[in-house]
Structures are given as C-alpha cells and as structure tokens.
User: Fold this.
Amino acid sequence: MNKPIQSEDIHRFSERFAVDPKNRLAMNAVTKNDIATVALSREAVTRVRHIYSHVIETPEATDQKSSGRCWLFAGLNTLRLTVMRKLNLEQFELSQTYLMFWDKFEKINFFLEAIIQTRDEPRDGRLVMCLLADPIPDGGQWDMFVNLVRKYGVVPKAVVPETYSSSSSKTMNALLAAKMREGAQVLRELHAQGASLEALSKAKDELLADCYTMLCIHLGQPPESFVWEWRDKEKKFHRHGTITPQEFMEQYVDCALDDYVCLINAPTADKPYDRLYTVSYLGNVVEGQPVHYINAEIEVLKQASAAMIADGKPVWFGCDVSKLLERQTGALDLEIYDYELLYGLPFKQDKAGRLDYGDSQMGHAMVLTGVNLDDEGKPLQWRVENSWGGTIGEKGYLVMSDPWFEEFLYEVVVDKSYLSAELAAVLDTDPLVLPPWDPMGSLAKAY
Assistant:
C-alpha cells in the first residue's frame, strides 16, 4: 500500500475538526499556552497530599543539576542515611563527583573491551553501531552502582565537591565520546592489520591513560585518602583521622549490598515473569557483578517496597519520570493532566505496548522514602526523594499515586529477605540475555 494524502482527505478531516466547537476552544487555549497548563486537572491537583502512614526521616533533597547521574544520587541517598544514623548527623551528602569519576573511567575500559570483543563484527552492524552510539553516558543501574562502591568506596561530598563538568556534563561527555570512538577506530584497524590481542591491550592502555587525564581535568583527581572530621547534631566535634574511601565505606556505611536484588516489572511477551534477566554489553566495571533483574508481577514490587519502608529502609527505583509529572505540586499521577478531555481522544496503549513500541522506558532513578497504606494495608501513594533540588514538590520530594506506580515504575531494589523463597531462588538460575537495545537497559543510557 502506498496511498498518498488526497485533498478530499484533508477536507474531511477539517470538517471533522470544525464540527465540535470544543476543538476550537482547545485550539485557542493551547496556541497561547503550554498544553500542560491547559490540561492540568484542578480536581487532581486538589487531591495532592504529601501525607503518609509510614515515612522515613530524610535530609534535604540533593541536586544532580544538568547531568544524568540520578542513579548515583539515588544510590548515595540510600547509603547516606546509614552514615547519618551511625554518626548522629543532621545534614550529610556523599560525593557524587567521586563516584562519577570512577564510573566514567570504568565505562571507558568497559567500552574498549567491548570493542575488542566485537572486533570481527561488521562496523555498520546493529551491535557495533549500538556500542558507538552511547560510549560514555551519565546513566547507570543499581548493580553498576554496587560495583563502584565495592571497588572504590565512598567519600563525603566535602572531600570531592562538585565541579563545573560534574554538574553540567554534556561537553565533557561529548569530548570523551569523541576520544573513545577514535579509540574504537584505532583498535579495529589494528585488528584488521593482524595485530595480536596483546597489541590491542597495549593500545587500550594508552587510550585509558589519555582518558584518565581528561577526567582529572574535568572532575579533579580523586583522593587515595583523606582526613575525616565532623560535628554531630549536638555540635560535638569528632576526628577519625586519615582514612581511605574503601575504609570509609567499610566503617561508616552499614548496608549489606549482597542482600539486595533488582526486581523489574516488564509485562511484555518476551519476558515471562519469575525469570532472571541480564542485558548484554551493559555494565561499567569489567570484573564486577553483571546487571541482573527478576521480572515479577507489579504487586510483588509493591509489597516488597512497602515492607522495606515500614522497616525504615529506603528503596532505590527506576521509572519513566517524563510521564504525567506536575512539578509545582510534585505529583506523579495518571489523572493530573486530562489530555483525553482536551483532545477528545483516548490514549489506550498499555504498559507492555508502551515498552514494545518505544513510548516509555526507564529513564530516571529516585528513592522511595514513604508510603501511605489504607486500612487493609494496600498502598494509596508513595513518597519519592528526588535529586532535582528543593524547588519542586514538597522541598524536592514528589508524591506518586499507586496507579502511576503500576504504569510507569519499572524497577525496585529490595532486600531479598522480603521475597518469597520461590522468587529468591530465581537468583540461582541462569539469566536470559536481552540485547543491548532492550528498554530494560535504558536507564544506563540516561543523560
């Protein structure tokens, strides 16, 4: 079929538009205003309440600024609570820039290793082009976060503060990506000329040295050790003395990372529930743990998350925050914008369809720090700690309706003790391998 648009088609569509005066009213409003302003549901706005039956005491919201480090902020926001409780601190942040440095450096090595592994694949094939498309994104996944803190530890933000490029990473990423694509060309051309794997490894080391220099210029050189001093809530002074980032992690971060597991909810035909999955060529630390997910029913994600919060444990999660967010109130709500009324058209695609056809994907990580349960113990809404500063929602905290959770939340990280024995046993099975362009890997490609 190759049917062009005919003049009679346009006439028919025009008549259809004109027959309903509400279309003219909508046109007049939207041509002079942002559509979100026009479609904002007054009824939904008046229902927004930042009230929860179970809430975790948390400090001021953090701010990732113009970077895609949400997953690092969310991970460090979960860890900082353990430090604050242990040291009786009122305000505290762990350095996001410190981990950003090592994440970038490890991703460069991961990328170059992938280029060597795919040296016999066609350069213009889908796999190699996928690798070249996103060589150094800011994004990441929970398992990638775990790999970093295990290997490099953590430091207080005062030890490695923000830099211009950590807060605004676009130019740094573009220059690093250019150097990495150049390196990919060098490695593939060396292979085409018959170079040995040893020669490729040596060339890779030279590229790593160049990129390390670039990272130091943008983010500063990370410390091998630092002096740790602090004042607690009672203004009492403490001095630990010199400590390494790894020692700080071991002594002050009370979190059993080995006990945590990623649950996803992807109700698509290619991902049966109660199975383990991984995404090929997704990661940062070459020798680290791979990214693993258990795909589970959405009620499993809800129950485990609510139980964690009730026990005072925050929940790292991934979602599509671009959908139906009203920034002033901080509401994530399916009814916050009445687009169907405005257009006079239904939006009927379900969660599986949105994933399969590219309308939604996991693009932002935050932390669940509260839940409002009804008298039967079912969640009504969730408190969300974001990393966009304190100007949206309730001082930077969002409120997520439970229906929004069902439709646009894709992943939670929970202690496996909150899972059934049958579901926990899935962790011991061999994962099904998803391609690198699968939407369940999209959070690692965030900018």
Summary: The chain has a mean pLDDT of 97. Residues 98 and 178 are 23 Å apart (CA to CA). The first strand starts at residue 54 and ends at 55. The longest helix spans residues 170-192.
